[in-house]
Design goal:
UDP N-Acetylglucosamine Acyltransferase, domain 1; globular; 2 domains; 7-stranded parallel beta sheet; 8-stranded mixed beta sheet; 369 residues; 13% helix
């Protein structure tokens, strides 16, 4: 039995937003923000801006990323959940890792259960009553409708067994060092100021210009970009001019020189490229986008994976290259390592995990639509 903390709305967090605190006064929000950021035990639990917890318990340490919702869940220790996941009525075991845009549709009488050390890939979804065994892996974009035995890797829609993991036992996944590094970065003057502006969003009409000024200080190339109300920009950025980033976008990832896990980390975007609203670019392993590309609304690009041959599931770099003039349809999922050739097209909702030849159209290995 693990020791847990129960939250009905949002727990103390490093990044807070006014929306999560209802009618609480601005002074109370600022006090809570400062207390959570600088508390001695701040590394125990990180629930990011705009994440929501309702009727759920967390056993620290835990890390819940922005716009994820946990409803009536029991979460074990050393659990990570990525951006914009919707998880309902789930029992999540110790050291599980859940990527971004995952949907777990449990119910009160048919909860979903995840065994210790399980990994759920980006864009996966699972039906009520499913059990994912200890150490099992659910591939990106998979739809799980039946139980997955321990240690089995499944993929596809519907998900089917691909193989059984033959992993070296080097312990369960732990993210304490990574979480500590992130919190240290959030305590920097620039990150603190950006978080305070999130708190002040409902009160300051000048937020856009102030935020843009801070982003330019961190990444001078952004001076020639149009970034509209992003959810998060925590990335090493480079590229050309006249780049457009839509509302609620997330851009994250940096190279080792700036504290990232890999030398090639960061995001480069070429001239006249447009990134649609709600796009999610996870660039820790490196994302390179060419000139004149169009990345649709709700697209997810993932440039890291995990080494399934070890039970600790260490992160690996999986760079993504998107060529000049590419068109990526809404809600597509791009998983590295891979290259989209120049002027290729990705159909809406496609899950793409392999190289795409220049000038061709792909519907991916599966489609989520």
């Amino acid at each position: 039995m693990f020791v847990s903390q129960k939250f009905t709305h949002s727990p103390p967090s490093i990044l807070l937003s006014a929306a999560e605190h209802g009618n609480a006064g601005l002074g109370d929000q600022l006090r809570d923000y400062a207390r959570s950021l600088w508390a001695a035990d701040a590394t125990k639990t990180l629930v990011e801006v705009r994440a929501r917890l309702a009727g759920s318990t967390l056993a620290p340490p835990a890390w819940i990323r922005g716009r994820t919702t946990l409803t009536d869940c029991v979460v074990g220790s050393d659990v990570f959940v990525g951006f914009r996941s919707d998880i309902r009525h789930a029992v999540i075991g110790t050291s599980c890792q859940i990527a971004s845009r995952v949907t777990i549709a449990g119910t009160a009488d048919r909860p979903v259960r995840l065994g210790p050390g399980a990994w759920i890939g980006a864009g996966a979804d699972m039906d009520a009553g499913v059990t994912i065994g200890a150490g099992a892996v659910v591939a990106a974009g998979a739809h799980v409708s039946t139980d997955v035995p321990p240690g089995v890797i499944v993929a596809g829609r519907p998900a089917r067994a691909v193989r059984h993991r033959k992993a070296i036992d080097d312990g369960l996944p732990r993210f304490g060092a990574l979480l500590h590094a992130l919190i240290t970065r959030q305590r920097s003057p620039l990150a603190t100021a950006q978080s305070l502006l999130c708190l002040l969003d409902p009160f300051l009409s000048e937020l856009d210009s102030a935020l843009h000024h801070m982003l330019v200080e961190a990444n001078p190339v952004v001076a020639a970009w149009c970034i509209t109300k992003p959810d998060l920009v925590d990335a090493e950025l480079d590229g050309g001019r006249d780049v457009e980033i839509g509302e609620r976008a997330v851009l994250m990832g940096r190279g080792a020189r700036l504290g990232g896990p890999f030398q090639g980390g960061g995001i480069t975007i070429g001239d006249r490229t447009r990134i649609g609203p709600d796009a999610l670019l996870e660039g820790a392993g490196g994302i390179r986008i060419g000139v004149g590309a169009v990345v649709g609304a709700g697209v997810t690009v993932v440039s890291t994976a995990h080494d399934h041959s070890r039970t600790s599931l260490p992160m690996t770099a999986c760079p993504v290259v998107i060529g000049d003039g590419c068109r990526i349809g809404d809600d597509a999922l791009i998983v590295g390592p891979m290259t989209l050739g120049a002027h290729s097209e990705v159909a809406p909702g496609a899950v793409v995990i392999r190289d795409v030849a220049p000038g061709t159209t792909t519907h991916g290995i599966v489609r989520r639509r």
